[in-house]
Lantibiotic protection ABC transporter ATP-binding subunit
Amino acid sequence: MDCLILETKDLCKKFKGQMVVNNISLKVRKNSIYGLLGPNGAGKSTTLKIITGMLLKSSGEIFFEGHNWSRNDLKNVGALIEEAPLYGNLTARENLKVRTIVLGLPDKRIDEVLEMVDLKNTGKKRAYQFSMGMKQRLGIAIALLNNPKLLILDEPTNGLDPFGIQKLRELIKSFPKQGITVILSSHILSEVEQIVDEIGIISDGIMVYQGNMKKGEDLEKLFTQVAKKYRREEE
């Protein structure tokens, strides 16, 4: 069995007495792309925020590379959750420079990540002038600065046109070859099925499916079947 970089066991999160993440058990293999799927409000973003330390879990366990997760593991995790955290009045390079100072990283890392996301030639153009696709790629560059082993992307194609989506898809597909494992959360199933190795489907805070993405498999059909089965169980 392939080595896991991330595993959660019976992960739970309550907000005001309501269980929004209910016994989620993820298994993410190293150097793979894991698709975390579910309708809006299913608990995907909450789960990812717990993994990235943005929220505290109510109960359950998280393991990173086989040991109990601690905040120290965040040095090996990069994340783009919701909107890219950009300073609109700064250039791409300046946005990254701010982070390298905070993280104590060398300036050469700026050129490395700009090359990875194809933003090296943006010059003095300010981030507020960027297209949505450029902003998303700069957000990914920020997430890559610390050379993470695990990269978490939550709805990275939101607001992108077809060309931006295609460019981002190719970028994400390249990461496992560079030793970067990706967790990709998205509701655009046609995009997910082209790049993921495994999928997990969450509905109403419950993991209702987890397994390998088979070549030629119709993800939309699988998603619909699982969702229907879950609704019948609820009824």
